Amino acid sequence: MSQILKKSSGSGSSVTSATGTSPIQVNGVSGVPETGAITISLASSGGIYAWTVVTGTSQNAVAGNGYIANNAGTVTVTLPATSAVGDTVSVTGMNNATGWKIGQPNAGSVIHYGTQTTTTGTSGYLSSLNTFDTVTLVCNTANASWIVISSVGNITVN
Questions:
Q1: CA distance 50 to 66
Q2: DSSP letters of 15-53?
Q3: How confident is the model at residue 49, as a pLDDT?
Q4: Spatial CA neighbour of 147 closest among 135, 139, 156, 155
Q5: Which of 4, 52, 106, 133 has the most CB atoms lying inside 10 A of its own CB?
Q6: How many Å apart are CA 60 and CA 62, to the nearest integer?
Q7: CA–CA separation, 146 vs 110, rounded Å?
Q8: Are 89 and 68 in contact (CB under 8 A)?
Q9: Burial level of 94, CB count in 10 A (0-12/13-18/19+)?
Q10: Which of 64-73, 92-101, 136-145 has the lowest mean pLDDT?
Q11: Distance from first CA to last CA of the chain, Å, rounded?
């Protein structure tokens, strides 16, 4: 039996199962609506990520987060050393004239950008050429390989 889900009105976000006692799952949260209805609250601000404005020159990334580079110098965001297939990270710029750089944390790490691949290991990276360049990456091999699934701007692969 499939469940009918509807979004509640008002501020914030929630999803309600219309009827039934079958298990439902929304964004990794599951439950059984014993009374015929269940409400699951979802994050209501910032989109799919928790965003961090980076004012220093370096940041260790955490999967499921986005980073906004906001430093006069280059901001280096290093991908998580431990990552699972499907983990995502996004990086964008705001007030950094020299752009951002996405560093690789492990000896076997690589980033695939279309037909290009970064140098294997901690010396490989992606970098932006313009202030507002943006990328979103997804891990495709645990602890090792990432793919750019979305980009805006001019990205350099090294």
A1: 6
A2: EEE-S-SS-EEETTEEE--TTS-EEEEE--SSTTSEEEE
A3: 79
A4: 139
A5: 133
A6: 7
A7: 6
A8: no
A9: middle
A10: 92-101
A11: 50
Q: 9: which residues sit within 8 A by CB, 6+ positions away?
A: none
Q: Which residues of 68-92 are buried (b: 16+ CB within 10 A; e: fewer)?
A: bbbbeebbbbbbbeebeeebbbbbb
Give the integer Cα–Cα distance in Å for 138 and 1.
32
What was the pLDDT predicted at 6? 45
Place of tokens 């313009």: 130
Tell me, what's the pLDDT at 44? 43
List, for residues 18-76, the tens digit of each pLDDT value: 455 556 555 545 555 555 555 555 444 445 779 999 999 999 999 999 999 999 999 99
